[in-house]
Amino acid sequence: MSSAYAQNSEIATQTPSQGKPKAVDAIDVQKYAGTWYEVARLPMYFQRNCVSDVQAKYSLNADKTIRVKNQCMNKEGELDISEGVAYPQNDGNSQLKVSFLPKGLRWVPFSKGDYWVLRVDEDYQVALVGGPSHRYLWLLSRTPDVDEAVIEDYLNTAKAQGYDLSKLVRTKHIAEK
C-alpha cells in the first residue's frame, strides 16, 4: 500500500463534513486523461437509462479544456453516448465545470455541472468525483473490477466528505467480461 493511499485512508475515517466537499489540490491532467470505468454512482437524472458498462473517456483539447465522452449500455441493450467539454475552474484542474450541450449553447451559465476530483491515487488508477451539492458522486477506476477493500476505502472518503451513500448504485460491467 502506498503512503498516499494510507494517508487518504486516515482522512476517510474522520467525522463527516457538514460543508462543501473538498477537491484535491491538483491533478495531472495528462495522467487523468484516458478511459475510466464507473464502479459506483449516486443516481443522476441523465444516467437514468444506463444499466451497465458505464465509461468515461477524457482527452485534452488544444485550448486546455478537456473533451468528455461518456457511454453506457441502456435498457434496450444499445450504446448511449454523450459528448461534452470540461472547463478548469482552479489552477490545479481538480475542479471543473462540464457541459454536454451543443457547442453553440455552452455559454449558458446554468448548463454546466460541477466535476470535482475528491480523491485520486498516486498512480491514477482509482478516482472519486463529486460536487459541492453532495447530490452526485462517481467512483471510477481504470479497470471494471476493483478490489472491495479499495472500494470501501474510497466510499469512506465520500462519507467523510458528507455524502449520503444510501442510494449508491454499483455499476455492472457485462461487455468487459
TrEMBL record:
Keyword field contains Ion transport: no
Lipocalin/cytosolic fatty-acid binding domain boundaries: 27-172
Cell compartments where the protein resides: Cell outer membrane
Quaternary structure and interacting proteins, as annotated: Homodimer.
One CC-aspect GO term: cell outer membrane
Protein name: Outer membrane lipoprotein Blc
Transmembrane segments: none
